[in-house]
Design a protein that fits this description.
The protein has a four-stranded antiparallel sheet. Strands 2-7-4-5 form a four-stranded antiparallel sheet, with no helix packed on it. It contains 25 helices and 20 strands. By secondary structure, the chain is of the alpha+beta class. α11 runs parallel beside α13, α20 runs antiparallel to α22 and α22 crosses α24. Pfam families: CBS, cNMP_binding, DUF294, DUF294_C. Keywords: CBS domain. This is DUF294 nucleotidyltransferase-like domain-containing protein.
Length: about 600
């Protein structure tokens, strides 16, 4: 009995202790010679192989599809669904655990979590594995730092100010507690203190606020743990405590902010954005949005829901910034639009700026120049890096009158270069977020009209999917180098996300579908008969796989300060089950690319 079998290796970690003991009693060890064909297409599998040492090549009609290494298993499809669809050939001397087919089928019937690994559709596999994630609970919230919780701004009022003035300033700042500075002391006054002073004590409105505040301030440091703050609140019967950082008071931590750590701050951030009275007031909620992504991911929220929440919050931020900075001439005649993953509603961790401005009528040049600089500069200050391709409001190419942009779109159509095609793709994802939304619709309709019937142009546009290769997944470094990164990593954006996103964009453009999100485009194209509903589900599930793995990479890159690796996934660091899902996703992308090649005769572009 091979007692060394690693039962912590997914999907075996989903088995009970009794099932693991049963499995260990039944497995054997097999030896494979270099070049030995373990399974061939059409052959029924009698064992589930789990590699101990060595490697096995997976070939589809002679083309290398994957290279499996230690802890990888094969072939689950042949085991459950009848017969192998690919060749499995030992690349070197290889040792494998051999798990009898009958036992595997029995465990599948008894254990739903284990069975999920053997689903034939990527969509079902992904849903099952996403459900198996262990979200962090209350313990992780209590171990969070005070600075991670949303908290109100620190308003400082002089003790000599009247209670009427204090009330007005607190109302203007949309807060319910403020600090009071008086003769070297720091106190706290709340809205309830002011209300009691006027209604119950009947104090004159001119009464100095020092008379109604309290100077026994209960404070925590921003680096303290949440549980320490909760202890203070409980001990002193307080709903809020003061927060200090570097010796200065920086705001208040309230019980509702701690609740926000449990359910996420997505309900609290919009209020802070809407209450902002200046660009500076938006800086804190902008950072909260970023922190919210990591918090939601830790709590087990699915990546598509994280993207939806993040996109909604970012749009609120852009709208409020537009309202604060745009002069009346631009607010009356302009439309702020966002593009890229923001426009598609697929943004998670903040990347670069992708925005623009359309004008329906002339505005003073001085107004336009000042707004361009202020808007892009403010976003950069919030942590949105400038777009390398300068697709942002500060670039006159992307902030101009409607007729000017329509002329530019037609020029790009006539240029027929990869750069022009990419600019068309960027605008095709545009969404209006503030102002005259009809301007974006008019520009898109003009673009669609100019491209109607231009089959060769659509094909050139679709050919952008060939910009990057989609590699096989395995242990051979040469395969990884195809996407232009180190031999130990895959650029998941280039290899997986971009081909699906742009392929759907091209097919939607071809059929005049103006839906912006990739999921919406897939649904519309299925309804139009472009491909089957089953393939549409697998494409969407593969996209979610890639978005999940990219989000993990992004969060890790942020933690390590290695932002250049924000799209890199290292297969060696994934579990065997995660590698299996990633292989399935990459296989679907290769199928989709082949479909695009055939449909648009992409071979003609060399």
């Amino acid at each position: 009995m091979p007692s060394a079998f690693d039962a912590s290796n997914p999907p075996f970690d989903r088995l009970t202790q009794e099932e693991i003991a049963e499995l260990r009693a039944a497995i054997d060890i097999g030896y494979l010679r270099p070049g030995e064909a373990v399974l061939i297409p059409g052959q029924k599998a009698e064992h589930l192989h789990v590699i101990i040492k060595g490697s096995v090549e997976v070939r589809d009609n002679g083309t290398l599809d994957a290279v499996l290494g230690p802890k990888d298993s094969f072939d689950s499809r042949a085991l459950v669904h009848g017969a192998a669809g690919e060749d499995f050939i030992a690349a070197e001397e290889t040792l494998c655990y051999l798990i009898p087919r009958g036992l595997v089928l029995d465990l599948i019937a008894r254990n739903a979590a284990f069975a999920a690994f053997f689903y034939s559709e990527v969509s079902a596999k992904l849903d099952a594995f996403a459900g198996a994630r262990r979200p962090e609970g209350m313990e992780s919230v209590l171990r969070a730092r005070v600075r991670e919780a949303s908290r109100g701004p620190a308003l400082m009022i002089e003790g000599s100010a009247s209670i009427a003035d204090a009330a007005q300033r607190m109302q203007d700042a949309s807060i319910n507690a403020a600090y009071v500075r008086d003769d070297g002391r720091i106190g706290v006054v709340t809205g309830m203190n002011l209300a009691k002073a006027v209604l119950l004590q009947r104090l004159p409105h001119e009464t100095p606020v020092r008379e109604v505040c309290h100077f026994d301030v209960i404070a925590v440091d921003a680096e303290d743990f949440i549980f320490e703050a909760l202890l203070l609140m409980t001990r002193h019967t307080k709903r809020r405590v003061a927060v200090r950082s570097g010796g200065d008071y920086t705001g208040f931590l309230e019980d509702i902010h701690i609740l926000g750590l449990v359910a996420g701050n997505s309900q609290l951030i919009p209020g802070r954005i809407d209450r902002a009275r200046s660009v500076a007031d938006l800086a804190a909620p902008a950072q909260d949005i970023q922190a919210q992504v990591e918090r939601l991911h830790r709590q087990g929220v699915k990546v598509e829901q994280i993207a939806e929440i993040t996109s909604d919050l970012n749009r609120r931020l852009f709208v409020r910034l537009f309202d604060l900075l745009a002069p009346a001439s631009i607010r009356d005649h302009g439309c702020l639009m966002i593009m890229g993953s923001e426009g598609r509603g697929e943004q998670t961790v903040r990347t670069d700026q992708d925005n623009g401005l359309l004008l329906g009528a002339p505005v003073p040049e001085a107004d336009l120049t000042a707004f361009r600089e202020a808007f892009s500069g403010a976003l950069a200050g919030f942590g949105f890096p400038p777009c390398p391709g300068r697709v942002m409001v500060s670039n006159p190419l992307w902030s101009q009158p409607l007729d000017g942009l329509v002329r530019q779109l037609r020029l790009w159509i006539m240029e027929r270069t990869p750069e022009a095609a990419m600019n068309l793709a960027i605008f095709f994802d545009a969404v209006a977020v503030s102002g005259r939304a009809g301007l974006v619709t008019e520009a898109k309709q003009a673009m669609a009209e100019a491209m109607r019937g231009e089959r060769a142009l659509i094909a050139r546009f679709a050919n952008l999917v060939e910009t990057f290769q989609t590699p096989a997944l395995g242990v051979l470094s040469t395969l990884m180098e195809k996407v232009g990164v180190g031999s130990d990593a895959i650029d998941i954006k280039k290899a997986g996300i971009f081909p699906i996103v742009h392929g759907m964009r091209a097919m939607a453009m071809d059929r005049g579908i103006l839906v912006t999100s990739t999921a919406g485009r897939i649904e519309a194209l299925v309804e139009a008969g472009a491909f089957s509903a089953a393939f549409g589900r697998e494409l969407l599930s593969a996209l979610r796989v890639f978005m999940e793995y990219r989000l993990r990479a992004q969060l890790e890159a942020v933690r390590r300060g290695t932002l250049e690796r924000e799209a890199l996934v290292e297969p060696g660091e994934l579990s065997a089950a995660d590698r299996d899902i990633l292989r399935d996703g990459l296989r679907i992308v290769r199928q989709f690319r082949e479909m695009l090649r055939n449909r648009y005769a992409l071979a003609a572009f060399g």
